[in-house]
Design goal:
- The chain is mainly alpha-helical and about 220 residues long.
- It folds into two domains: about 5-55, no CATH class; about 70-180, no CATH class.
- Helix content is about 65%, strand content about 5%.
- The protein contains seven helices and two strands.
- A two-stranded antiparallel ribbon has the order 1-2.
- Strand 1 (about 15) and strand 2 form a beta hairpin.
- The radius of gyration is 43 Å and the shape is rod-shaped.
Length: about 220
Amino acid sequence: MERKTLLEKLGLIEKIESEDGKAKMDAGDAVQSLDDTAFKDVYLSKEVEVKERIEENTTVETKAPDAFEDPVLIVRSKKLMEIDGVYRKYNINSEGINSLSIVESFQKALPDYLPADVKRQSILNIIASSNVRIENLLKDGEDKLKSLNDFSGSFTGDSDKVIAGFQDEIKKLKEKIDKFEEAIAGMEKLQNEQNYVIKYEMDKINNILKFINSEE
């Protein structure tokens, strides 16, 4: 198998068959006999250059977003977050002995006719006898309030963005409608003017024909 020189690999010279069948090189005879290693650096630099040009000229095609998404489907994709889900999101236990839910359970267990201060003292006594620290319950309440407040702020912010997007889309659609109405009015005006020009010419021709064909 005939071995190609590095110049051939780089496309710097081209082998041409002569009429007698012997191979010859165009514009490369003077350097063909040089050792390939002399052009090693040239080859590598050329390879890097070509690679860089390919990467530079290559653009990543991204799928164009839909011009219009169904806003109803967008809203339907949103789900109502239950309170337990909010607590799980912020890694807060909604149940347990160190949770405020224990106080709520005690409140429901006591008779409704008891005065509020009696209820409160009774529950505190039960909690103390259960080796539950009031500080833990207070911290649980603060953590829950913070998580609820943070989630509410985040959800409200996201909702505002969705609503603002819809309002912006409505504004664009109204502007587009206005342009279409303006275009329709312009087309109707042009149509009327064109019909008038045609009718005027037709009337003129008909009058001339009538004049020619008149028996008088």
